[in-house]
Amino acid sequence: MGAPGTHETLLDEVLAANRAFLDGDPAPRPCALGAGRFLLLTCMDPRLSALLPRAFGVGPEEMVMIRNAANRASADAVRSLCAAFFVLSAKEVFVVGHTDCRMAQWTAMDVLNALAKAGVPRAALGGKDPREWFGAIGSARQNALDAARAVRACPVLPAGTPVHALLVDSGTGALEVLEKGYGRDTTRTPPPAAPSPGVPPPISPPPELDVPALAPPKPPAREPPPILPSPVRKPATGLERAADVLRKLRGRKP
To answer: DSSP letters along 18-29, please?
Structure first.
């Protein structure tokens, strides 16, 4: 990308390489600033696969492109960017939108017509706006700026990591800098600090439980007395029957 010391920043080298490409020099140019692999968040448009390495002045093996529809800074895209940043020892991130992006031109009616043609009911979108469900954008330029700021705000990237917003011409490969990532401070939500070695973390008091008052216990139910079986009378003997007859004759009660 130029002789060592010619440019002050990696972005300067990228822009110099892009000017050389536009002037008809398609050969990759070695980077003097030791950038490692170039790390990009860009669109799924197949035209960018061969165009972007040439526009940056590097070989395709030197560029890692995290791609989705309209280069949105979705949670999964940012996670992949962070993984690539550390695994590949990258130093800077480029968010690159492009002109003539279909995701900025796709209307809600286009989406519904495409679904109907494929036999997919609109209910499959779960009630969401068709453009919202597919991540369509209003402006490729503004979307690149928003995505770069979202990536810059990720607390997993080291603070101060340059995240640039660029727009590439889909026809010529000309790069336009929308926002440089150098020296930009971003409000972040820092992760909780880890406890010092050997010092146990403070123990928080248990939360107070809102326990409803208990009703007084009910007295135990009284069991009914047991029903005893009636005594069984033994049949009278012959002598007892004779005595009973005599008593009746005399008019006496037993």
So the answer is: HHHHHTT--S--
Question: Each residue of 78-133: pLDDT tens digit?
Answer: 999 999 999 988 889 999 999 999 899 989 999 999 999 999 999 999 999 999 99
Q: Are 11 and 163 in contact (CB under 8 A)?
A: no
Annotated domain spans of the chain: 10-101+137-179
Helix axes of 10-22 and 48-56: crossing angle, nearest 10 degrees: 110
Q: Determine the CATH number of domain 10-101+137-179.
A: 3.40.1050.10
- Segment (H or E) for 43: strand 38-43
Residues whose CB is less than 8 angstroms from the CB of residue 178 and which lie 6 or more positions away in sequence, other chains included: 97, 141, 144, 145, 148, 165, 166, 167
Taking Cα atoms as reference points, which of 36, 46, 45 lies closest to residue 94?
A: 36
- pTM of the predicted model as reported, rounded to 2 decimal places: 0.69
d(C-alpha 139, C-alpha 147), whole Å: 12
What is the rounded distance in angstroms from the CA atom of residue 43 to the CA atom of residue 96?
Answer: 8
What span, in angstroms and rounded, lies between the C-alpha atoms of 215 and 206?
25
Query: What helix, strand, coil percent values describe the chain, rounded to 5?
Result: 35, 10, 55
Which amino acid is present at 247?
Answer: R
pLDDT tens, 149-179?
999 999 999 999 999 999 999 999 999 999 9
As given in the structure block, the two tokens for residue 229 are: 């079986």
